[in-house]
Amino acid sequence: MVRLNKNGGPKNPEKVDRLCASVWTSSLEGRTFQNKTHILPFAGRMLLNDSKKGPAHVQYRRPYGCAVLAMSDVLQTISELKEEKDFVLKVYTCNNENEWYQVHDNIIRNGNCLSPGLIISLQLLRGDMELVRRENPLIFTKGVAITRKLGFPDVIMPGDVRNDLYLTLERGDFERGGKSVQKNIEVTMGEGDSSGPCFPEYRSFVLYHNNSPRWSEAVKLPIPIDRFRGSHLRFEFRHCSTKDKGEKKLFGFAFTPLMREDGTTLSDDSHELYVYKCDENTTFSNHALYLGLPCCKEDVSSCPSIPSSLVFQRSSKETFWISTQLSSTKLTQNVDLLALLKWKAHPERVMDILGRLRHVSGEEIVKFLQDILDTLFSILDDNTEKYGPLVFQSLVFIINLLRDSKYYHFRPVMDTYIQKHFAGALAYRELIRCLKWYMDRSAEVVRQDHIQEAMRALEYLFKFIVQSRILYSRATCGMEEEQFRTSIQELFQSNVVISPVFLSVFLSFSFLSLPPFPPPAPLQDTSVQEEVEMMVESLLDVLLQTLLSIMSKSQSQEAVRGQRCPQCTGEYVSCLLSLLRQMTDAHFQHLIENFHSKEELKEFLLKILCVFRNLMKLSIFPRDWNVMRLLTKQTSLMGPASACLCAQVWNSYFSLAVLYINQPSLQLENLSPAKKKKVLDRYGDMRVIMTFQLFSMWQNLGENKIHFIPGMIGPFLGVTLVPQVELRNIMIPIFHDMMDWEQRKNGNFKQVEAELIDKLDSLVSEGKGDENYRELFGLLLLEKIEQETWRETGTSFVTSVTRLMERLLDYRDCMKGDETENKKIGCTVNLLNFYKSEINKEEMYIRYIHKLCDMHLQAENFTEAAFTLLLYWELLHWEERPLKDFLHYPAQSQWHRKESLCRRVIHYFNKGKCWEFGIPLCRELAFQYESQYDYQSLSWIRKMEAAYYDNIMEQQRLEPEFFRVGFYGRKFPFFLRNKEFVCRGHDYERLEAFQQRMLGEFPQAIAMQHPNQPDEATLQCDAQYLQIYAVTPVPDSVGVLQMERVPDRIKSFYRVNNVRRFRYDRPFHKGLKDRENEFKSLWIERTTLILSHPLPGISRWFEVEQRELVEVSPLENATSVVENKNQELRTLISQYQHKQLHGNINLLSMTLNGVIDAAVNGGIARYQEAFFDKDYITSHPEDTEKITQLKDLMQEQVHILGLGLAVHEKLVHPEMRPLHKKLIDQFQMMRNSLCHVSLHELKEELPSLF
């Protein structure tokens, strides 16, 4: 208790530290720790306002404040710390004292905080109480209170004695008693006993002026077990007042006994007690004056008629409520259970008492489990003949009660009792006799409920039998051993349906005389060998058949619900494992020899292999039972090695071996280093052991290997992809063996080749395989093939497979990572081309066509999606040959599939605005419709073709830009490494934006700032370098571009589509730079890039297949510049003449101004100075034709400019007339400058032309 001053602080701060301490005991596993801890600080005067009235020496407990700490908020914190941690609890008040009993529920909603609050320190201590005391002795030297869980823990172990009574003062209803105001009531609780009280009086807090107070105060009463009988609790009610000298006036009391007359304790319930009147002078020294009175309504019937002349009279209008909860392992509230525990008081009723045990609730039985079992075996010892069957039935009932999921966690309690507390040394005799009686009648009785109950209890019945026999042997030095064994043998020979428990018990008894498993050497003892042989002959087949039956049902249940097999399956499996681990090679050999025919042997082997296969697939044991799971795997290695049998058995064996090696629980790479080391030290790598067996069995096949080709290629390939080097070294050479055997039989290994490629694709896409596997695969097989006569074709095949693996690994890495669409598309194109050109696998090729198409559609590359789907379209023919359903296509004829593909391709070309590519397909489709007389479809396709022509002439299309990209360095994926590509840019995408996009896709890359080819060091470095610059398309369709009457909208398409050649110019000065006129020495290095496929195509970029490098002289460059400018002017002027561009003529004005102004101030004038000079013409006689061509182009440009100015004059706005006049003046100057080089001058310099 802490005394607080009027400011809410402690009166004696120096004494506050460590005022009280408590250790709470609770389990944190699988449940939430107590949600909230309530702390109430609590001393003060009577009045709410700290008044000085009244005597100061009288103290009352008054509601002051409440502090709440949510343990769920702090448990995470303290569980990670080893030392104490402080927490601050805010103190809240309750505005209305009548609601004080529920202040904890309302505290956050309407409580008012008084002060910063209390500081408490919390520390989490792990372990049982004995361990905590031993490890933290200092904590328990300070008078620490041990606070146990309210109620019982999940498990009550034998020897755990507890007797705690928890009482809650709930509420009361009292009369005013003639007073003008209501009373201030205090309850004093004490114990009434002739031996004196065993705990001090407890006083409740006082609620101000309240005749119906609600306290809800919980109190723990430490009453010894032997004090319960004859003790009672008395509750005295007093009115507290500041007047009348501040005394507390007694006005009534209530009471209740702790134990009833029948020996049962006060029930766990709410109790309404009668209130009896008394005055302040009453004393309670003579308990007999009131104990004969009824304490509650239920007690009235047991009391005789009460005379009205008694000292205490009941107040009929006043009542008092309490609730109790008893947490006791020795006292019970159940009459039947009490009668059993006290059976010696009424020995004549034992038969009835044992029969009524079934009516006792399960909670009471598990609570008093040790006492009940002790009682049952003491009754058995008292009279075995008379009580034996009833005790046996009671024991079966209790054992089966613990099979219930509600009480299943009490099974360890039963185990502990048997091992440490059970003392029935003679009980085994009667238990065996009763059990045999049940087994003998298992086939005769119509109603077998009681027999089935006994069978379900077999496990613990035998544990009791074994422990009882051990106790008897210790006491008698092993007497009657032979009789015991005989009785056990007779028991096992009884006519009973085999259960997993029965099997496990039988095996455990049979193995008592066997050495520990696994046997280090063949067993020498003949009797032991005979016992094992007998068990194999009698049990093995039954076990296998039973497991197959259960597993077949469990497979469907596991597929539907995802649950484990039934629990009994694990018990059957344990029996099978125990039996197999005791068998030696001699036992296996003898077992095989006992079969009368190969057909019987085949059926048996298929059966055992099927059981092992189910053990690998089904969840027999829980996921955290790692030892049992690994033991199952280890035992599976001990299976019998069969001689040469049918292909079905061999296939089953190989499939089982592959399944075994690929089990998730054996993949050590997924374990932590510590766990991996532990498994390796104890079991070794069981995958390698099985691989050696698998390889050995394959070698035993000899000429029969050909029967397993290509069926076992896929499974064996899956084994080689397991990331274990030794395993791969063993298994990869098997593929050479397969190639060799097929080569011998067929003269080729096409089957091995086809199956290996198919399975490799699917397995790598599942995440299997790595770069080390690719290298090892090629190295091992090439080494083996080197000695063969067919090494040329073999080497070619292995090389192709390793190259395929390179592409598959790149593809998988791109798909599983957060890679950009461009990377994924590029990788898929690379793989698709490989399937088409190098391996010629049409089905895989078509699959990747559709994968690539889906990627393009997702990226809205509709033109590329159309070209991709066109690849599949080209593989089909216009014929009625039926096709099977494939991917998303239904079963249909080739004609209909080609038609549907054609429609899709046309649709995608339309969305990509490449109508010119869609029009030929429209014509193709129209021809087919016309030949089929399908005029409705023909009309539709012709209208679509016409609409595409309209779109070409009416809709605006942007000309994309093209960029050359070089990927240099070994850090790039294989399909990009040290290669260069030309990429078709997006709409409105310019060089800078494209560079930023590429650097975003390859964040580790470094941009190269020069266009020169990289050196060898750059190509081989472990880095990424990007070299990007813009390139110009060089169209192949030159004819349409030279036609003057073709609209520019049509020409623009052919300038940038279906292009394979791209050009990049790099200017440089050869020799010394001419300072007066740089055009004289300005050369151009022209690089032409030729792609593997034209753009656009199935990708937005294609690899550069060939480079052409030429140097362009200054004169040729000038000719090219003037020619290109003439073409640009001609196109622009034509657009304005035909009103394709109307309204704003700014573009025409700026273009004319740029050409005319440049011609006047430089440009053409500089070309005249450089190339029409007398000295240049004399020194370069070989350029005569080129000079003439340049002169003609200049004259042509003057003519074109004249036409352009004429169009400009018609369209120019009046406000822009001054600009037009300026252009006319400059044009005159330009024309005059060109006339300066007259025809006569040229005749003198170039006489040969005239």
TrEMBL record:
The keyword Chloroplast does not apply. Its main location: cytoplasm. InterPro entries: ARM-type_fold, C2_Dock-B, C2_DOCK-type_domain, C2_domain_sf, DOCK, DOCK_C_lobe_A, DOCK_C_lobe_C, DOCK_N. It is found in: Cytoplasm. One of its GO terms (cellular component) is plasma membrane. Residues 836-1243 form the DOCKER domain. It comes from the Eukaryota. Residues 162-327 form the C2 DOCK-type domain. GO terms for biological process: small GTPase-mediated signal transduction. Belongs to the DOCK family. This is Dedicator of cytokinesis 3.
